[in-house]
Prior knowledge:
Blueprint: E1 7-12, H1 18-32, E2 36-41, E3 55-59, H2 73-79, E4 88-95, H3 105-114, E5 120-121, E6 126-129, H4 134-154
Parallel strand pairs: 1-2, 1-3, 3-4, 4-5, 4-6
Helix pairs in contact: 1-4
Amino acid sequence: MAQHPLNAQVVFATITGNNEAVADIIIDQLKQAGLSVKKSEISQTEVEELQQVDIAIIVPYTYDQGSLPDEGLDFFEDLADVDLTGVVYGIAGSGDLYYGDTYCLALDSFEKQIQPTGATQGAEIVRINLRPSAEDAVILKLFTDQIIAQAQALQ
């Protein structure tokens, strides 16, 4: 069986632009690795789209005291009802360490929500404080490389 080129979708939610910056770094890394990548804003994305890709990366922000992005609630709830067997996922996002215990809490919520879908975790959650730095880009490259390797192993 010939391997097909991997494809990915990066779904993001942002208020400040920091999470879109995280998503863009991930997308650049995926493209450099030769993948076809679709970028979509969470409120404009149906969870069923993730059934069409090898890799799904979700980049949500955490609002207020650990809340999910309002515009991502439908997407979050719909995740409970989709079968993503064969899809490798990753979750990353920006937060503000100022919020202490609720720092990047939405990332954990999304991980709990996606686990029962049959998707395979490709890498540990990556939490970025505020706008991603050059050091964060290195961490995100490792995150992306791990996810790609996992997806290749599943082919």
